[in-house]
Amino acid sequence: MRITQISVNNPVFATMMMVGIVVMGLFAYQRLSVDQMPDITFPFVQVQTSYAGASSEAVMQDVTRPIEEAINTISGIKSIRSFSREGASRVTVEFDLNIDVKTAVQDVRDKVAGVRRGFNKDVGEPTVTRADNDNDQPIMHMSMKSPARSLRELSDLADQLVVKRLQGSYGVGTIEVSGSVQREMAIRLNTDKMAAYGVSVEQVVGAIRGQNQNQAAGFLVGDRSERLVRVQGKFKDAVDFERVIVARQGSAGNTAPVTLGMVASVVDTEREETSLSTSNGTRGISIEIRKTRGANTLEAAESIRNNIVKRGESCQHPKSTFGKGGAGFKNRTYSQPAIDLDQ
User: Fold this and answer.
1) pTM as predicted
2) Are the folds of 44-131 and 135-182+274-341 the same?
């Protein structure tokens, strides 16, 4: 009643108050963020571990089961689910809703670190992350293709230019590239020549591993400066590999080197493909972008598109153009229509 009486006795004051409330509401409405999904925290923690070359049974016995036994001692666990396949293990832990997710992640990380010391040396470092169904889904799919460039050239372009540029966009978390091909040096040993020179496979592997690396060579010390000196020993092409000395023949003081090219052939080829991507029936490269936790989906998608338009001209060099007859991008977000960019 008192508020009503004040408003009746002071109509100008009441009017100004209502106008002020409306203005504040309009001001707040313009800055109200819009996202695809509500911000919900799920009490799920995921542990992923790689075990190269191991069968699914070995992964279960040597990696998955010890992790499950260690995590099972944490309080507040509702369920534990695991998946073991060739070369990889995934353990998903669901906690009660009243458990703080950050505390649960730290508890799981501590338990996994304790059991990690007992793993085989070939087992990779376990990765403990908070499972988030919203952030785990890509917010944008892109395809990259070109009729004028090979798939290997497109792969280098995507890895060295496109991905690095997209990582600078707002809200970009992880970028996954599929369908690309990677350069590989294939060393094909000749068993007859190896037997003739008395060279073993272990000698070849040891020689390549020991010589194909950059090494520190000390410091250059001046009156006012000190500079680190490094020897660039990484091999760049097949000829460098062929010159690697794998063994020496002869008696002391009169030895002849045996190079890799004398017992094997080195081919500059491509790594075996593990993924395939096509766009309208044409081979290309697929790029999936996931946002960081807490970032706005729509703002992140818009920032990515603007970055593509802004940086597209940097790909226009003699061997590749984004435009007529060149590489093209196509992207799609879950919350907005598909957009074709031809820059």
Assistant:
1) 0.60
2) yes
Torsion of CA 200, 205, 210, 211, to 10 degrees: 90
Beta partners for 251?
254
Domain extents in the chain: 44-131, 135-182+274-341, 184-270
Mean pLDDT value across residues 277-303: 82
Phi/psi for 329 (5° steps) reads: -110, 140
For the domain made up of 184-270, give the CATH fold: 3.30.2090
Mean of per-residue pLDDT scores for the chain: 81
* CA-closest candidate to residue 173, choices 130, 123, 144: 130
Digit-coded pLDDT (tens) for 112-132: 999 988 888 889 999 998 876
Residue type at 11 in one-letter notation? P
Print burial letters for 48-76: b (CB count within 10 Å at least 16), e (below 16): ebbbeebebebbbebbbeebbebbeebeb
* Distinct helix (H) and strand (E) counts, the chain: 13, 17
Calpha distance 192→281 (Å, rounded): 45
The pLDDT tens digits of the residues spanning 52-71 come to: 888 889 999 999 999 999 99
| Nearest alpha-carbon partner for 46 in 131, 141, 133, 152 | 131
- Tokens for 151? 């798939």
Distances (CA, A) of 104 to 4, 97, 110, 114, 247: 52, 11, 10, 16, 54
In percent, the amount of the chain with pLDDT more than 70 equals: 86
* Per-residue confidence (pLDDT) for residue 302, from 0 to 100: 84
- Region 44-131: CATH code: 3.30.70.1430
CATH fold for domain 135-182+274-341: Alpha-Beta Plaits (3.30.70)
- Examine the pLDDT at 339 and tell me if it is beyond 50: no
Per-residue confidence at 167, pLDDT binned at 50, 70, 90?
confident
The 3-state DSSP composition of the chain as helix, strand, coil percent (nearest 5) reads 35, 30, 35
